[in-house]
Structure formats: C-alpha cells, structure tokens
Amino acid sequence: MALAPKRVWNPPNPYLSEQRELLGEPPAAELEVYEDESKSILSHNDSPDIGFRWSINPYRGCWHACSYCYARPTHEYFGFGAGTDFERKIFIKRRAPQLLEQALRRPAWKGERIVFSGVTDCYQPLEAAWKLTRGCLAVCLAFRNPVAIITKSLLIRRDVDLLTGLAREASISVALSIPFLDEAIARAIEPGAPTIRRRFETMEILANAGVPVGIGVAPIIPGLNDPDIPGLLKEAKQRGASFAFHTLLRLPGSVAQVFFHRLQEHLPLRASRIEHRIRDVRGGRLSDSRFGHRHRGDGAYWESIEQAWALWTRRFGFDRWPSWSLRGERAVSGAGGERAE
C-alpha cells in the first residue's frame, strides 16, 4: 500500500542563524538524493554503551521515518532539518564498497566485526537501486570479515546468498528491529518501515536459511511498548531467533520535538502519559548523554522493565548470548546503534 505524500515539517535547526516560517499549507516532501563524498567508510566507536567498535553506514537519512531515531540531528550539520528532511533528503555514499576494500587491505586492519546500520538502516528502499550494502557485504565475504546487521527491512532477503556465505566463511548475525506488537502503533511511530508481520516473516526466512538471527526490541518507550516485551520475544522464538537485545529510548536535541510532534498527531490521548514515563526513568529528563547511561534508565519503573526483560529472555532462552552475536565482541548492555557517521 502506497503511503500518502508527507508534508514538510522540521523542528528549528540550531545551527542556522535564521528560520523561515511557511505561510499556508506546507508542500509535499519529495525524495531528494545527494552524493556523500566521504573519503572513508568505517566509523570507529569508543562508547561503552554499545557492543561494537566498527560500523558502516552507506546512507545518511532514512526513508523509514522512525520518529525516535537519534540520528536525526546529523542532518542539521548539513543545513537540513531533523524532521521530514531526514526522511526525504537522503545521502548515498556511492563509493562505499571501494572504500571498504581499501580499509580491509590495510595491514593495520585486524579483522574485527563490522556492524551495518549503526546509524541509519542499510537496507532502506534506496538500497534496492544502489546496492551499496550488497557491495560492502561482498567485500566482507571476500576478506572473510565478520559482520553483524541491524535492520527493519525486507530487502535483506535479496542477499541471502551473501549472508549464508558469510555464515560459512566468517561469521554473521542479523538483528531484526521490531519494537512493537501493534501494527497501528508501528504505523504511527515508524511509518516508512515494513509491517511487523513481514519483519517476523523475514526473520523466519533468514533462520531457515541458516543465518543466525535475533530481535532488537529497540527502543523501549516507557508507557508505550514495554508491555509488548513478552509477546515480541515469544514470536521471535517461534520464528527462529537465537538472541535478543533491548535499549531505552533516547531523545537528544531535535529528536524530542519530532517524537512528540508525531505522538500528538497520532496518539494524542497517550502522549502526556508517555512523556511522564520517559521522564520518570530519566530522572526528569528526556535523554541522558552520559556514557553508561544512554541506553539505560533509573528508578522503580525502569527496574520493573528490566525485571520483565530478565524474566522473559530467560524463559525463551535469550539470556545466553552466542559468541558470534553483538554481545560476543564487547560485553555491555544494549547493542543498538550510536551516532558515528
């Protein structure tokens, strides 16, 4: 089903000295593609909050339009907005496969795991035409370099041949990001992403092909999707998942404005309660940028979420992390992406 055209809406860009206010109806937000002339492709992460050191992001911006995406402020560095600009003005790193091959040929490279989609989804719709992620995976297979992928997209099914090759020759894990059970809520919060049903189907297809697969219940949005934890983990187990991770919602900078704008537009009766719960687990704030706290909360409500997570992951056998999973590289809580473009 085709989505209706989105109307342009962006929160004020803190890096611009002036802002313009539209008079009348905003125009439709059309897709615009820009070439990113980055000279390197591997991003290094030294945050203790996430479980990997190296990531690749072939695209900046993301069609999936998840309102909670903490990468949104990166678009403001280029003079764009963190709202619809992030969703429709998308950068492609056209030379990503060639840059990756150059990096893996360097004597200093030690063959560490590379995570795809540390920031924006490497399998968003533009990948169907540009095949940058496929090209990078082919390079990893040629060098037998371990890989992990986090995605919401069905397009990953196209690359089962490369994924199974990596499973044989190196190692690979794929995490399907599925934070909601309710399709209506998913449409409101992440309107450009595939349906929940089809994401679970993709998980099963990959598992049946012999690709190690898991679920990312990320982010957990207190007061909205924390009751979904048991159902999501149960369905993931039935679909062949062998691991699971979770992270707490982060709302840095302009992300908070985008997120609450979406809530007020689509879930107005729940918006106030959700904001209260978010502040409750963040000590009155909407986000916490301190290392060690970005993906974790505090207080009684967060403790109840953690207890539920521990109970259900143990029940479904997700409390024992395989050596090839994201946790296998660095033993930290949470393995969601981090801004590292």
Secondary-structure map with pairings?
Blueprint: E1 32-35, E2 42-44, E3 54-56, E4 59-60, H1 84-88, E5 89-92, H2 96-105, E6 114-116, H3 127-130, H4 132-142, E7 147-151, H5 160-169, E8 172-177, H6 183-189, H7 196-208, E9 213-220, H8 229-238, E10 243-248, H9 255-266, H10 268-281, H11 299-315
Parallel strand pairs: 1-5, 3-6, 6-7, 7-8, 8-9, 9-10
Antiparallel strand pairs: 2-3, 4-5
**How is the biggest beta sheet arranged?**
7 strands, mixed
Strand content: 5-15%
Structural class: alpha/beta
Mean pLDDT: 88
Number of strands: 10
Adjacency order of strands in the biggest sheet: 2-3-6-7-8-9-10
Order of H and E elements: EEEEHEHEHHEHEHHEHEHHH
Helix share, percent: 25-40%
Could you tell me the radius of gyration in angstroms? Answer: 19 Å
Our measurement of the CA-to-CA distance between the termini, rounded to an integer number of angstroms, reads 32 Å
CATH topology: pyruvate-formate lyase- activating enzyme
Mass-distribution shape: globular
Number of domains: 1
- At CATH's second level, what is the architecture? Alpha-Beta Horseshoe
In short:
The chain is of the alpha/beta class and 341 residues long. It has one domain: pyruvate-formate lyase- activating enzyme (Alpha-Beta Horseshoe), CATH 3.80.30.30. The protein contains 11 helices and 10 strands.
